[in-house]
């Protein structure tokens, strides 16, 4: 209250100054980084609830990454080296809690960068980002718009990479010609539906029915699966269902005798899925998130440091918990570290400029371009190759890397058509 | 005079309070203030003996209505908040026609179904409700100055003061209603319905009245929330949130006006501040659930029973 007395205008600059003053007076870290002072990074994602599988494993991955970086001397900013420290806040995938978390991380903990899952939670955080100028990252580029100048999607270009799975499927199993799809009716499900529709159309695969959208509160998937199978499709597409949906849907597909192809964005904890169904049932399951012990990740094109070692350490500490996001937040940190070291600063503006310096970035799966003006209204998504993963003999195997920009160059009009139909283009959202 | 001093002291405490807590706790304070109105309005409905599972969706009706009239029609935000309350009350009036053909458990399930229909409509009609992604970029309260104080509604302290005034006014109205002959009739409808009916009380009319009034205030709470966080979506008002409202009411107790408010304050502080500060982020649901079970086992009359015991002892002395 008292800081507001007689105050007529609060610009971003005065806001940052007042935050620094308050932080100093409260004995919290100041904005300028002292020699040897640890760099704090915010982790603002769901750690509990239905979407926790896309938050908590990422935090575990970040801790492993930080230990490794710190053991090697930390991050070099100018002449000083700094240790990395993560500060987490469970936003429960709720925009109000995400706003509270962003406030805490920035104004109390003094973080220099905040990683988020994004989606429903980003609009709650956006006013905080606008006001503070803090650099944020999201796994969901559908959060991007011309207004989100300090938001980056540097690792996962959800859902655009999904086209690579369908492209591989069409090239390798051309006999499969019909598909059905189901998805939860939310901010993650809908753009994903539009992308799969574009990818199927580009691949000449016919949709037998409208995508079946179910409520996120759904727990009984028997009727959904029965309806999906009623047209005897060659392919069942599970869109970007959370693992809490992928598992019961697969169980139902198994119980209802489905023997065809399944394609999905994720297959988190697929070993449990195999245990619930059978190795034969899961054989050939296509998804997009590899295990990092895959030999294909040792290639020269891969920019994720020691992917195999990271996977081994992760499984040692968190057995059975490897999931789609286990490596993603760590990969974002790798990009941020390179940006900060290049800029010689951890301040958001400087790191952002350094990361996007020449329009290219070192994405985990290969060198990539900052892209997205047409799709998102801003080129803040790092887009390049993405792996196609298939379960073979009970194990996820990378079958190849496909170029997203190359697909987009050929079929971008289809993607825009379907995204527009679902009101998912940047100028249609909100 | 004693009451006047207490109220003045409370007002001063509320003015000072946000300046004594951290930035994130100020944010929690804003949401707590709004939730107090939700749970207090819910209690008004329970006075007639009916428990609804649609109260949070009705709150959402107010949020959507206020967001739309301010965003699409350019209505001034404070007026939008009032429109939000009225919209919720009107929807509740319409819903009361089928719902109050039922009682007890059937009303509970009916209210859940009605709420789900409303939520599905929000999802189905992207225009104007924004579909599953909801509405973003909702107009914030316009900043203003009162001479010595600049209200900047991005700041949680300013919004806390604003919402505290609105909620205090609403609580005062709810209190007056409960203490009025209408409120006494609500109690009679619950505890002595046959006798009340024999005395000429139209049970259905009073149940409808409680439902509509409670919904109107829930709508105001929803509108307050929407204009603070700037975004709403159907999941913000789902049954999980309703379970929280129910637990606040049950743990606090619904026998007194302050019971559900006490439940809301204690459980919110526990869940959002204490457990987080203790570094138990990922185990919060487990601990929260355990505390709920223990409190129901050992305090079946809610937290309000502790207050009653303490005040009785003081009175006896």
TrEMBL record, chain A:
Key word Signal present: yes
Name listed for the protein in its UniProt record: Leucine-binding protein domain-containing protein
CDD domains assigned: PBP1_ABC_ligand_binding-like
Domain Leucine-binding protein stretches: 38-392
The entry's keywords: Signal
Listed InterPro entries: BCAA_transport (IPR051010), Leu-bd (IPR028081), Peripla_BP_I (IPR028082), TAT_signal (IPR006311), TAT_signal_bac_arc (IPR019546)
Automatic annotation (TrEMBL), chain B:
Organism listed in the record: marine sediment metagenome
Official protein name in the record: Branched-chain amino acid ABC transporter permease
InterPro entries per the UniProt record, alphabetical: ABC_transp_permease, LivM-like
GO molecular function, one term: branched-chain amino acid transmembrane transporter activity
Residues passing through the membrane, by range: 28-45, 75-97, 104-122, 159-177, 209-229, 241-274, 286-303
Keyword Signal: no
Membrane topology per record: Multi-pass membrane protein
Phylogenetic classification of the source organism: unclassified sequences, metagenomes, ecological metagenomes
Keywords of this entry: Cell membrane, Membrane, Transmembrane, Transmembrane helix
Keyword Endoplasmic reticulum: no
GO cellular component term of the entry, any: plasma membrane
Entry's localization field: Cell membrane
PANTHER family noted in UniProt: HIGH-AFFINITY BRANCHED-CHAIN AMINO ACID TRANSPORT PROTEIN BRAE, HIGH-AFFINITY BRANCHED-CHAIN AMINO ACID TRANSPORT SYSTEM PERMEASE
């Amino acid at each position: 209250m008292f800081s507001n007395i007689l105050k007529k205008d609060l610009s971003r600059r005065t806001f940052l100054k007042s935050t620094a003053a308050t932080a100093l007076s409260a004995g919290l870290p100041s904005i300028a980084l002292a020699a040897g002072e640890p760099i704090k990074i915010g982790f603002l994602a769901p750690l509990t609830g239905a979407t926790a599988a896309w938050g908590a494993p990422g935090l575990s991955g970040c801790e492993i990454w930080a230990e490794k970086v710190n053991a090697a001397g930390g991050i070099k900013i100018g002449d000083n080296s700094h240790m990395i420290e993560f500060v987490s806040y469970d936003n429960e995938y709720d925009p109000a809690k995400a706003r509270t978390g962003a406030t805490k991380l920035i104004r109390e903990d003094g973080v220099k960068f905040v990683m988020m899952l994004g989606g429903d939670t980003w609009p709650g955080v956006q006013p905080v980002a606008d006001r503070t100028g803090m650099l944020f990252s999201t796994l969901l580029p559908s959060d991007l718009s011309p207004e989100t100048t300090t938001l980056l999607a540097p690792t996962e270009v959800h859902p655009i990479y999904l086209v690579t799975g369908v492209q591989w499927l069409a090239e390798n199993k051309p006999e499969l010609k019909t598909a059905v799809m189901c998805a939860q009716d939310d901010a993650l499900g809908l753009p994903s539906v539009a992308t799969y529709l574009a990818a199927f159309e580009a691949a000449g695969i016919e949709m037998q029915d409208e995508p079946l959208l179910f409520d996120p509160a759904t727990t009984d998937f028997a009727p959904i699966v029965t309806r999906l199978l009623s047209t005897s499709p060659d392919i069942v597409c599970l869109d970007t269902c959370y693992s809490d949906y992928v598992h019961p849907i697969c169980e139902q597909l198994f119980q209802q005798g489905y023997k065809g192809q399944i394609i999905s964005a994720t297959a988190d904890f697929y070993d449990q899925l195999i245990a619930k169904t059978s190795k034969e049932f899961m054989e050939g399951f296509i998804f997009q998130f590899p295990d990092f012990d895959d030999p294909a990740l040792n290639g020269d094109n891969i920019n994720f440091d020691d992917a195999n070692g990271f996977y081994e350490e992760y499984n040692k500490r968190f057995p059975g918990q490897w999931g789609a996001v286990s490596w993603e937040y760590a990969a974002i940190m790798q990009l941020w570290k390179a940006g900060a070291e290049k800029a010689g600063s951890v301040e958001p503006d400087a790191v952002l400029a350094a990361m996007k310096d020449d329009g290219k970035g070192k994405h985990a799966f290969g060198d990539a371009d900052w892209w997205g003006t047409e799709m998102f209204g801003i080129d803040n998504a790092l887009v390049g190759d993405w792996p196609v993963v298939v379960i073979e003999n009970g194990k996820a195997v990378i079958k190849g890397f496909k170029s997203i920009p190359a697909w987009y160059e050929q079929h971008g009009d289809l993607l825009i058509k379907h995204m527009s139909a679902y009101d998912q283009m940047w100028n249609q959202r909100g | 005079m004693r009451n006047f001093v207490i109220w003045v002291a409370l007002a001063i405490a509320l003015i000072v309070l946000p300046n004594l807590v951290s930035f994130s706790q100020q944010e929690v304070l804003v949401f707590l203030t709004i939730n107090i109105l939700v749970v207090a309005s819910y209690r008004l409905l329970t006075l007639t003996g009916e428990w609804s599972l649609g109260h949070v969706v009705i709150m959402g009706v107010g949020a959507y209505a206020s967001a739309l009239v301010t965003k699409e029609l350019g209505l001034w935000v404070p007026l939008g908040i009032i429109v939000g309350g009225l919209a919720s009350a009107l929807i509740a009036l319409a819903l009361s026609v089928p719902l109050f053909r039922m009682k007890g458990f059937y009303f509970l399930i009916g209210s859940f179904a009605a709420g789900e229909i409303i939520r599905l409509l929000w999802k189905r009609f992207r225009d104007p409700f924004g579909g599953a992604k909801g509405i973003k970029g909702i107009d914030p309260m316009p900043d203003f100055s009162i001479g010595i104080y600049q209200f900047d509604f991005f700041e949680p302290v300013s919004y806390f003061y604003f919402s505290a005034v609105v909620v205090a006014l609403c609580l005062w109205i709810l209190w007056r209603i409960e203490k009025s002959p209408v409120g006494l009739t609500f109690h009679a409808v619950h505890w002595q319905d046959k006798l009340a009916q024999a005395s000429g009380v139209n049970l259905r009319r009073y149940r409808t009245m409680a439902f509509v009034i409670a919904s109107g205030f829930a709508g105001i709470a929803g509108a307050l929330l929407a204009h603070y966080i700037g975004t709403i979506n159907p999941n913000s008002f789902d049954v999980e949130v309703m379970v929280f409202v129910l637990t606040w009411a049950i743990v606090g107790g619904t026998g007194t006006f302050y019971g559900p408010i006490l439940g809301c304050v204690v459980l919110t502080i526990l869940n959002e501040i204490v457990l987080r500060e203790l570094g138990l982020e990922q185990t919060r649901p487990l601990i929260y659930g355990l505390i709920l079970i223990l409190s129901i086992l050992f305090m079946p009359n809610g937290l309000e029973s502790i207050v009653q015991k303490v005040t009785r002892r003081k009175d006896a002395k």
